[in-house]
Amino acid sequence: MEKAKMENLAIVLNRPKHPGNIGAVARCAKNMGISSIIVVNPLNADRKKIEQLATHFALDVVEKIKYFDRLDLALAPFNHIVGTTGRSGDTSLKRSMVYPGKMAEDIADISQNNRVALVFGPEDRGLTNSELKYCDVLVMIPTSENLKSVNLSHAVMIICYEIFTARSEFNSVFTPKLATSAEMEAMYDHLKEMFVRIGFIKTQNPDYWMTNVRRFFSKTKLLARDVKIIRGICHQVDLYGKGKTG
Fold first, then answer.
1. Which helix (H) or strand (E) holds 162?
2. Domain extent listing, the chain
């Protein structure tokens, strides 16, 4: 059994509000052997405050933080995306919902050959449904009914600790290289365009109807060649609709 390849993991903080939390997350990452942090559209990224909470132990992690303006661009190169949420009863999410332990076992396998993003939302509200759509799986940290919200850096530490200590259930065969988020999103855009054209989904708010399609594909792990086949089918359907095929 293999441990997760921590070098293939990245922590993605989407719209964090407090620079101190970014620093605290950097220290958590250092503790668990993760060197990659991505910060998307932060409200405040004051470097001094980030370094204060990171302490000198994690300054090397802080130095390598990458900043993006958009979540989709930040996630584009990743093959597997884990989103965190506390909204277990929200059926509109339409994704697999797992606890940290189960998620960690899967990541121990997937991370052998794939880049994995662990996405955390802003401290007050978490990730929105439109942001969670990019995720392949959702993880929820179980908490007491007395206080359900979890501090951002604490949530990061819980998730990363579970992955750090997990072992893959597979002995020799690991999940191969998966399609990237950019490839998957291009496929979804292509499918949506085709579905609207043939009347499979309604033209009003097609993204809402695509939620079910995303849920369907989230049940399996698509390789880059699988995505190319699906897009090839879309292309042929488009040509057929234009009367350009035999």
1. helix 152-165
2. 6-165, 181-241
**CATH 3.40.50.300 is right for the domain spanning 6-165:** no
3-state SS, 194-227, equals: HHHHHCCCCCCCHHHHHHHHHHHHHCCCCCHHHH
For residue 245, the model assigns a pLDDT of 53
- Model-level pTM? 0.88
Q: In the chain, what percentage of residues exceed pLDDT 70?
A: 91
**SS3 label, residue 46:** coil
Residues of 2-31 as b/e, b for ≥16 C-beta within 10 angstroms?
A: bebbbebbbbbbbbbebbbbbbbbbbbbbe
Instruction: Report pLDDT digits (tens) over 160-219.
Output: 999 999 976 655 567 889 999 999 999 999 999 999 888 888 888 888 889 888 888 888
Determine whether 231 is exposed, middle or buried from the number of CB atoms within 10 Å of its CB (0-12, 13-18, 19+).
Answer: middle
For 22-56, the pLDDT digits (tens) are 999 999 999 999 999 999 999 999 999 999 999 99
Residues 4 and 52: their CA atoms lie apart, in Å, by: 29
Architecture of the 181-241 domain: Orthogonal Bundle (1.10)
Bridge partner residues of 55 (DSSP): none
The Cα–Cα gap between 82 and 118 comes to 5
